């Protein structure tokens, strides 16, 4: 079951999104009427996706997004607005929103977007969990390809001997 929180001060929109997603039986939908209630529900519950309106009373969507991402950076948040503005969309995505939709929301488009977001989240999680990890003084060094496995093996061998080592590579490749 995919748990979705719909946060919007427009009850009609909440009901429309809820009925569109519940008809598929793979979604469990909860609602919140404003940003503050949405943040509280996120902190109290375990959601997979949050659909978040931008313009709401008490706490607007952009501020709610920041608080939600502070609490759970990996949570998928999709912003919704009736008045699309490029600067708001850019701000939302920079603050961690997965995407930005204009109302009225097309149920088929919304469903496809949620499915893509969940698939992307699973892929990121799988890569992170399957990546080779080497611990160095309490810090994790993560890599998931054959070259990084070779580097880890070389680091392990060199750590056992007392010899200077020169590490070469382009600027920004993580030689540190």
Description of the structure:
By secondary structure, the protein is an alpha/beta fold. It folds into two domains: 2-129, Response regulator (Rossmann fold, 3-Layer(aba) Sandwich), CATH 3.40.50; 132-176, no CATH class. Helices cover 45% and strands 20% of the residues. The protein has six helices and seven strands. The chain has helices at residues 11-22, 35-44, 61-71, 86-94, 107-130, 146-158; strands spanning 2-7, 27-32, 49-53, 76-81, 99-102, 133-136, 139-142. A five-stranded parallel β-sheet has the order 2-1-3-4-5, sandwiched between helices. Strand 1, helix 1 and strand 2 form a beta-alpha-beta unit. Helix 2 runs parallel beside helix 3.
Low-confidence stretches: none
How many DSSP-defined strands? Answer: 7
* CATH topology (level 3) name of the largest domain: Rossmann fold
Please give the share of residues in helix: 40-55%
Helix vs. strand class: alpha/beta
- Amount of beta strand: 15-25%
Shape: elongated
Oligomeric organization of the protein chains: single chain
CATH level 1 class label of the largest domain: Alpha Beta
Order of helices and strands: EHEHEHEHEHEEH
Radius of gyration: 21 Å
Tell me the CATH architecture of the largest domain: 3-Layer(aba) Sandwich
Q: What is the number of helical segments per DSSP (H or I, 4+ residues)?
A: 6
Distance between the termini: 43 Å
CATH superfamily of the largest domain: Response regulator
State mean pLDDT (0 to 100 scale).
81
């Amino acid at each position: 079951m995919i748990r979705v929180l719909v946060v919007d001060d427009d009850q009609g929109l909440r009901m429309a999104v809820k009925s569109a997603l519940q008809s598929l039986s793979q979604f469990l939908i909860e609602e919140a009427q404003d940003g503050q209630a949405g943040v509280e529900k996120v902190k109290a519950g375990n959601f997979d996706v949050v659909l978040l309106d931008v313009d709401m009373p008490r706490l607007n969507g952009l501020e709610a997004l920041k608080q939600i991402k502070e609490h759970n950076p990996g949570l998928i948040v999709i912003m919704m607005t009736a008045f699309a503005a490029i600067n708001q969309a850019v701000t939302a995505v920079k603050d961690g929103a997965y995407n930005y939709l204009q109302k009225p929301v097309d149920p088929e488009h919304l469903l496809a977007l949620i499915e893509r977001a969940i698939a992307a989240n699973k892929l990121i999680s799988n890569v992170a969990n399957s990546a080779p990890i080497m611990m160095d003084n309490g810090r994790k060094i993560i890599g998931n390809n054959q070259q990084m496995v070779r580097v880890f093996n070389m680091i392990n061998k060199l750590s056992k001997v007392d010899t200077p080592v020169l590490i070469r590579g382009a600027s920004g490749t993580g030689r540190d």
